[in-house]
Write a structure and sequence with these properties.
It is globular and about 35 Å long. Helix content is 14%, strand content 37%. The protein has 95 residues and is mainly β. It has one domain: Nucleic acid-binding proteins (OB fold (Dihydrolipoamide Acetyltransferase, E2P), Beta Barrel), CATH 2.40.50.140. The termini are far apart. InterPro entries: NA-bd_OB-fold, RNA-binding_domain_S1_IF1, TIF_eIF-1A, TIF_eIF-1A_CS.
């Protein structure tokens, strides 16, 4: 039995009112990525300054994005899930 095996579900950050799940499809450079959102829309998402050096985002990562009010094809990334958290979200049917 490993130290990390608590045998249970971890409490994960869930989307707030204006956030949606998304999967990173490709890196565009200049702190921008292309994401496919759970509402079916492909958006260009911006990696905010507070995440740029601390959180590394790669293709196929599951993230939370907040679509812009005034331009629906753009969004800001608010959270990145690590691989095991993304797997848990898939198992529970959220994404």
């Amino acid at each position: 039995m490993s130290d990390n095996d608590d045998g249970g579900r971890r409490n994960l950050r869930m989307p707030e009112d204006d956030e949606v799940f998304a999967t990173v499809t490709n890196m565009l450079g200049a702190n921008r990525v292309r994401v496919r959102c759970s509402d079916g829309v492909e958006r260009t998402a911006r990696i905010p300054g507070k995440m740029q050096k601390r959180v590394w985002i790669r293709e196929d990562d599951v993230v939370l994005v907040e679509p812009w009010d005034w331009q629906d094809e753009k969004a800001d990334i608010t959270w990145r899930y690590d691989k095991q958290d993304a797997d848990q979200l898939r198992e529970e049917g959220h994404i």
